[in-house]
Amino acid sequence: MPTYSFFVNGSARTVQTRTDDQPLLYVLRNQLGLTGAKFGCGLGQCGACTVLVDGEAVRSCMMPVAAANGRGVTTIEGLGSPDQPHPVQAAFITEQAAQCGYCASGVVMATVALLARKPKATRAEVQAALAGNLCRCGTHQRILRAALRATGTSP
Amino acid sequence: MRLSRRKLVIGGVLGGGALIVGYWFAHERDRLGGRTLFPARQGEVGLNGWVKLAGDGRVVVAVPRAEMGQGVHTALAQLVAEEMDARWSDVRVETPPESSVYRNVEILLDGLPFSPEQTGMVVDGARWAVGKVMGVLGVAATGGSTSVRDAWHPMRLAGASARELLLRAAARKSGLPQSELKTADGEVRGRGGLIVARFGELVDALGDLAPLADVPLKRPANFTIIGTPASRLDLDDKVTGRAVFGIDVRPPGLLFAAVRNCPTFGGNLKQATPPAGGLPPGIRKIVPLPTAVAVVADNWWRAQKFLEAGLDIAWDEGPNAALSSDSLWRAYETLAATGDRKESRVSGDAALLTRPGRRIEAVYRAPYLAHATMEPMNCTARLDDAGLTLWMPSQSSSLMRYVAAREADLPQDKVTVHTTFLGGGFGRRAEVDLVKQAVAVAKAMRGTPVQVLWSREEDMAHDFYRPMALARLSAVLPPDGAAAAQDAIAWDAVLVGQSAGSQYTSRLLGIAEPGDPDPNSIENLPYGLGFHRLSTIVPRGPVPVGFWRSVGHSHTAFFDECFVDEIAHALGKDPLTLRRDLLRDKPRHRKVLDAAARGANWGTALPAGSGRGVALRVSFGSIVAQVAEVVVESGAIRVKRVVCAIDCGPVVNPDIVRAQMEGGIVYGLTAALHGEITISKGRVEQHQFDDYPVLRIDGMPAIETMIVHSDDAPLGGVGEPGTPPIAPAVANAVFAATGQRLRSLPLKLA
Which residues belong to any copy of the 2Fe-2S ferredoxin-type domain (chain A) (predicted)? Predict the structure, then answer.
């Protein structure tokens, strides 16, 4: 079986899969026990599976595990905890920007990736960066406020 | 406790079903529960059935409702914390075990799936079925915007009883007379505010004290937690990836199953033929089901790939393989014109219908809609010698247990149901299709837990859809025009559409469809009309329909509120002014309407190509008005701003009310602008978010919500009432902007 090694949330991990086209999402959720990234559509259309690979937001339901070999993967679990949330997570809590919360991991990861690239992202830039992260509960307005709060601009 | 008039109506209608009624009310008086009902862990002690206290001060509240984003864990915990004087940061929630103490009484009376007005069912001899559904569904169900309405009294009482128990324990421990002790912010205090004990320090002093049920509740003026925007208890876990949804459960040895359902409605599996060379590595079993096939594997993605490419599946497409949306619309048009109808509502002076005056008529349409919850459908099940264990994101754990027991041929006490967080519900997760499939797979894989998970494509094409509906509306207007609209308009409507409640009953109980319209699709309009008639035709059809956020109101509000606009324009009246006139005797409704209009600067000028539209709907006990401001540019409708006003009676958490209005509006906007499930060759044509698009953050209007307070009014729901008014508000705004009256959803400009 093919073997892959990469860093996940700062730790070196080695996994085996039956085939090299196995998407990263299933390795994270099943083999590594990191269920924060969610399955939503399987086609990269909803953003629920978003994780960071070398700091870039990727759809882990579409990225073959082979493409992550040797790289650094960050999932929501590696960001912060309820006691010590990452600044983006803290902003989401302040704005109460989740309802069912199923999309929240992906939205937070996409926001982190955006702000790493553009720490002072504008409203339009946030909207463009998060347009591929679907939310059926309708927390859009709060997500926007939370992302802007995390930039340090008043929402 | 006081029985409201509505509850007495139920007793009256069910009459001969006194046993059922007696059963529910007997328990209603006994909803406090003893100190051992809510199981205590190490370091915890039960105070009554709804609350536990830990030595470290944690207050654990039993919340027997499903958290699907609507904030129910938080809002219900606030009820207990308020009366108990707990400190909010000490409060946690847990799901309690099954007990009649926790059942949702309100949902029986006001929610899914029956109404006391459905006397036809009684006549049909199906009353036993009603009782059966009540007995099953009612124990622990979440839906119909009922949770706070149901919990308002019992959970406040539980908090007050817990507080009284702590006061007795503090008196016992300190030797001070109880009359000198007070509670506040998680502490018992004596004279001069001196701290006698923190709540957690009383754990050992409670002994065998028994909870009392006849304790006074606070006056609303003294509330310090109810009515405040207490932070959500589920949020920290949700934004840090720790919240466990249905697809996240990982019992040891878990396998995964992907499912392919027969693409046509009413079709069956003929045969699933594995490849000649045997099953590929990782694929454990093919499980044929009556209308589907499941593939069990050590990895869900692999199971799904095998279903798509490796397995040769033959279907018996069944009797509906020629069904199409076009044929359904044609049938509905014929029914509306000539079909047998029932007068579901009639009031006022029928002579107004034939009086001379201007007559207007319009036909409105709303399509089937999918729920498209973000978390695809799933259920995890393990069957072994000890019994059946389920892990499921469902809106009714007791219903799932009942169905699972039936499917596994086990007594109910051998079935354990763990309810996880729900990645969206919206009514979809009151259905029992997944639990049936999961039990069938668990039977085939005895001893091994299996997580049955549908792909997004299966979810989209095998939903229980919001019924498509057609309404033919006509009105006879007063000859003297706008001067005297109140009580002078004759309104005559015919509504054609399947009934979610009727079909649900049939599905669940295996009986013929009762054929009654959904109760909330035939509620009276709030307006003062001279004559009102609503005739209904409920076709029985093969397309599965179900409860979709706001149920009947999701389409009838569009029909009614657009038609009110048409009447206003026919009378030469401003749409807001006409509504105000027709609500002359309804001060609460007027206040809500005025609040939304004022907030949206109704009546001020807008640039060309822009327009405002208003709509008002009373649903689930709450009054909601919305004003939408739209811009039509390059042939596209953009909703720029929505101002929403709600009167839901007493407010438990204003921030959650606002969140529910925002969420309800977005859900309704998706339907107004994009949502359409179509049928061709007996199957659904949409499969993914590319052909069933939803409103994205870059199309999001600014939403402002105003809460109109009326504390003396009865409690209303908030989960659903935000959805109905938005589609008509937007359609009316499009008319204001362009002069185009769009009478079909989703709204498409000519």
Answer: 2-79
Q: Which residues contact B326 (CB under 8 A, 6 or more apart)?
A: none
Q: Biggest alpha carbon distance in chain A? A: 51
Q: Which two tokens stand for residue B519?
A: 């109760």
- Determine whether B250 is exposed, middle or buried from the number of CB atoms within 10 Å of its CB (0-12, 13-18, 19+): middle
The encoded tokens of residue B327 equal 């044929």
Average pLDDT of B508-514?
Answer: 86
| Rounded Cα distance, B113 and B106, in Å | 12
> Rounded distance, CA B397 to CA B454, Å?
20
Say if CB B407 and CB B436 are below 8 A apart. Answer: yes
Write out the residue range of the structural domain in which residue B405 sits: 246-318+377-453
Q: Rounded to an integer, what distance in angstroms lies between the CA atom of residue B422 and that of residue B239?
A: 15
Q: B467, B499 in Cβ contact below 8 A?
A: yes
Chain B contact set for A140 (CB, 8 A): 662, 666, 695-697, 700
Mean pLDDT across chain A: 96
Any idea what the CATH number is for the domain that residue A110 is in?
Answer: 1.10.150.120
Residues of A in contact with B232 (CB under 8 A): 96, 98
Chain B CB contacts of A138 below 8 Å: 662-667, 695
Q: Which of A45, A48, A137 sits opposite B690 (nearest CB)?
A: A45
Radius of gyration of chain B (CA): 27
Task: Report the complex ipTM.
Answer: 0.98
Domain membership of residue A20 as a residue range: 3-78
Residues of A in contact with B424 (CB under 8 A): 100, 102, 136-137
How many domains is chain B built from?
Answer: 3
Closest by alpha carbon to B74, among B579, B630, B656, B569? Answer: B656
As for how many domains chain A has, the answer is 2
The pTM score is 0.94
Task: Enumerate residues 6+ apart whose C-beta is below 8 A from A49.
Answer: A25, A37, A38, A39, A40, A59, A60, A61, A106
Cβ atoms of A70 and A5 within 8 Å: the answer is yes
Q: Has residue B288 been placed in a domain? A: yes
Strands (E), B669-709: 679-680, 683-684, 702-707
pLDDT at position B129: 47
Name the residue type at position B150.
D
Between B15 and A120, name the one with better pLDDT: A120
Tell me: pLDDT of B490 over 80: yes
Handedness of CA B158, B37, B96, A83 (dihedral sign): positive
Q: What percent of chain B has pLDDT over 70?
A: 91
Q: Extract the tokens encoding B697.
A: 């953050």
Task: Tell me B699's DSSP state.
Answer: G
Rounded distance, CA B155 to CA B145, Å? 17
Helix (H, G, I), strand (E, B) or coil at B494: strand
A37 alpha carbon, distance to own chain's centre: 7
Q: Are residues B81 and B190 in the same domain?
A: yes
Convert the pLDDT of each residue in B449-480 to its tens digit.
999 999 999 999 999 999 999 999 999 998 87
**Tokens representing residue B613 in the block:** 């539209």
Q: Cβ of B299 and A22 within 8 Å?
A: yes
A13: burial class by Cβ within 10 Å (0-12, 13-18, 19+)?
Answer: middle
Q: Is residue B411 assigned to a domain?
A: yes
Residue B440 sits at the chain A interface (C-beta within 8 Å) = no
